[in-house]
Design brief:
Blueprint: H1 14-24, H2 31-52, E1 65-70, E2 75-80, H3 87-93, H4 101-110, E3 133-141, E4 148-154, E5 159-164, E6 170-177, H5 187-198, E7 205-209, H6 237-248, E8 256-262, E9 268-274, E10 287-292, E11 295-298, E12 313-317, H7 334-357, H8 359-379, H9 381-387, E13 392-394, E14 400-402, H10 403-409, H11 411-414, E15 417-421, H12 428-436, E16 442-443, H13 449-460, E17 464-467, H14 486-496, E18 502-506, E19 515-519, H15 521-537, E20 548-553, H16 557-568, H17 570-586, H18 593-609
Parallel strand pairs: 1-7, 10-12, 15-16, 15-17, 18-20
Antiparallel strand pairs: 1-2, 2-6, 3-4, 3-6, 4-5, 8-9, 9-12, 10-11, 13-14, 19-20
Helix pairs in contact: 2-5, 7-8, 8-9, 8-13, 14-17, 16-17, 17-18
């Protein structure tokens, strides 16, 4: 090794670092209040911890943090009656940027991996005050009875320290708000920030406004023991609902809740709610608030929760979650992945529990959660595998069955096939034909259903979904010979205006229906997926051509009459064929303007014949 190597430490000039702190330390300036109050919380937590360890005698002190607003003086003050600081500690932890008193306290008293609710680890939070202040003062007195200290620092980083006559243990931080940031001196603005960032901090917080008639709040503004900290067995349904209303100001009752109390090695708690969703295209992005030792961090938790669960609302408190210095952006690591996987498992467990143990309630809410469950099943095969036994089919008679129950009941009639309708009103004729033969029809009226059915066919391999107007089920077919009728085929192609129309002849058990218009399963699913894409992307609907075919019921008396008329009176035959075709279209979809006009004219003509 060369003897010319020179070693040293990088020095930081406060004159240059303070402008960077003011502008770039945190992504949102509002966070300064969270950071200063978090420091006050840590001060109280440390003092209580020393008592529990027997380092100092216990006392019956009411621990509290007071936020004081003085608009005339242009100051915001944060006071606590926690551990306080001596002159030496203030010099060490405040005057040295990024040297964390919390970190040293944990190392000294908690040991490797401990924290016991202490929030600060980075030592930079205090300096967030300079994002909105041109001067910051500290009055502090240590629990050791060392003399009180007064510290003053301006926005250039120049500070002075002197003794003061502070009598009580604790610390007061006074922020002198700059002219440019006077908006923070508004009572409503400050109250909103406290509700957002400090609503569940573990020490009682009081807010005082020097200009208000009732300057001091008589009750703490925060809940020091939030519901997620409680044992789930000790919580009532009413408490869960009240907590939901309080946190999200949504007075629609959530469908259900999931209380998570994960122990080692994950160590996080939370409550997740499934809200009522009015329609499948309502904003699916929910709101899961992330906390760190009861301190609000962010609403954006996409790194923790899979995208198909983002419609959930709730809170997660992850005291071991790795955060960057601003605590606003989550780092991608194994712990985060495991937390997300645990949440997915808990959601699946809840759905299975409701289906197996509270079936009546589960069926009541199935219409609300169905879109979520289908989307999650499409997005994550593992999630589907967890809840596949709890997937329900909504039937046209209003009842529900699991897929396995449906297949078991249908085994003798149509093994492996699930018949479904996409529109109970338009396809009522088809539904009545199927139900008359004892075939249950499932309802799939959402655009997402097409993808869901395709996914299930791929996952299972033993099931096929078939739309009731896509083909004629064996159970619907009557007895009799199936023969081609070239003359009638040409007639129906003529009246339909489609020279390529597929026409088949089949006797049906329901002799009242002269013909059925069928649409191919593949083209109908593709059309639904295109429609969903257009609605979710905001693009114009993409028209996908549907492939139709006509099934003529040879068991119908009208078929017999049409056959004879085609030989004796071609004009009447054409009128009747056009009416039969129009009726088959009407049973399958809505008529367009020209079709409706022609249908009415033909109907009047037929009435005149009578």
């Amino acid at each position: 090794m060369s003897d010319n190597i020179k070693k040293g430490g990088i020095s930081v000039d406060t004159e240059h670092i303070f402008p960077i702190i003011k502008k770039w330390l945190y992504s949102e300036k509002d966070i300064f209040l969270r950071e200063i109050v978090s420091n006050a919380t840590d001060a109280v937590t440390k003092y209580k911890r020393l008592q529990s360890l027997g380092q100092i005698p216990s006392d019956e002190c009411d621990y509290r943090i007071t936020i004081s607003l003085d608009k005339d003086a242009a100051t915001i003050s944060v006071s606590d009656n926690g551990i306080g600081m001596s002159a030496e500690e203030l010099e060490t932890y405040i005057c040295n940027i990024a040297l964390s008193g919390a970190f040293e306290f944990i190392q000294k008293y908690e040991g490797e991996g401990g924290s016991n609710g202490i929030i600060g680890h980075f030592g930079l939070g205090f300096y967030s005050a300079f994002m909105v202040s041109d001067q910051v003062e500290i009055y502090t007195k240590s629990f050791t009875d060392a003399p009180g200290v007064h510290w003053v620092c301006d926005e250039s980083g120049s500070y002075s320290t002197e003794p003061c006559d502070k009598q009580d243990r604790g610390t007061t931080v006074i922020m002198h708000i700059t002219e440019q940031e006077r908006e923070y001196l508004d009572n409503a603005r400050l109250s909103g920030m406290l509700r957002k960032y400090c609503a569940f901090m573990p020490v009682e917080i009081y807010f005082e406004d020097a200009d208000a008639e009732n300057s001091a709040s008589s009750a703490p503004i925060n809940d020091t023991t939030p519901l997620w900290q409680a044992n789930p067995s000790d919580c009532t349904d009413e408490q869960y609902k009240d907590f939901y209303n309080k946190v999200f100001t949504d007075f629609k009752e959530p469908l259900f809740h999931i209380h998570i109390n994960a122990d080692y090695p994950l160590n996080f708690k939370g409550i997740l709610y499934f809200p009522r969703i009015s329609s499948e295209y309502e904003s699916i992005e929910g709101q899961v608030k992330l906390y760190y030792n009861q301190v609000f961090v962010a609403d954006n938790i996409k790194e923790v929760i899979p995208d198909y669960l983002l419609m959930l609302r709730g809170v997660l408190d992850c005291p071991e979650l790795p955060l960057n210095v601003s605590r606003s952006y989550l780092q991608n690591n194994t712990y985060v992945t495991k937390v997300g996987a645990h949440i997915v498992k808990k959601v699946a467990d809840k759905l299975n529990s409701l289906c197996n143990l509270e079936r009546e309630q589960y069926e009541r809410i199935w219409g609300d959660i169905r879109i979520f469950v289908e989307y999650a099943s499409i997005r994550d095969r593992k999630f589907y595998e967890r809840i596949k036994g709890s997937l329900l089919l909504s039937l046209t008679d209003g009842s529900c069955k699991t897929i396995d129950q449906y297949l078991e009941d249908a085994k003798q009639k149509h093994e492996g096939v699930i018949y479904y309708t996409t529109d109970k009103a338009l396809q009522a004729q088809y539904i009545s034909m199927y139900t008359a033969q004892g075939i249950e029809v499932a309802v799939f009226e959402k655009s997402l259903d097409a993808q869901f059915m395709s996914a299930l066919e791929s996952y299972r391999g033993d099931v096929k979904f078939q739309r009731i107007d896509s083909d004629v089920a064996e159970a619907l077919k009557g007895d009799g010979e199936v023969t081609d009728q070239p003359a009638l085929t040409e007639l129906f192609r003529k009246v339909s205006g489609n020279a390529e129309l597929g026409v088949t002849y089949q006797p049906l058990k329901d002799t009242s229906v002269p013909a059925m218009l069928n649409v191919s399963e593949e083209s109908s699913r593709m059309a639904e997926m295109m429609r969903m894409y257009a609605m979710t992307s905001g693009n114009s609907p993409m028209q996908f051509p549907l492939e139709y075919s006509l099934v003529v019921n040879t068991g119908s008396s009208l078929y017999q009459k049409l056959q004879s008329l085609s030989e004796s009176d071609s004009q009447k035959a054409e009128l009747i064929a056009r009416q039969i075709y129009a009726l088959s279209v009407l049973a399958q979809r809505k008529l367009n303007a020209s079709e409706l006009k022609e249908f009415l004219a033909d109907s009047f003509s037929l009435l005149e014949l009578l």
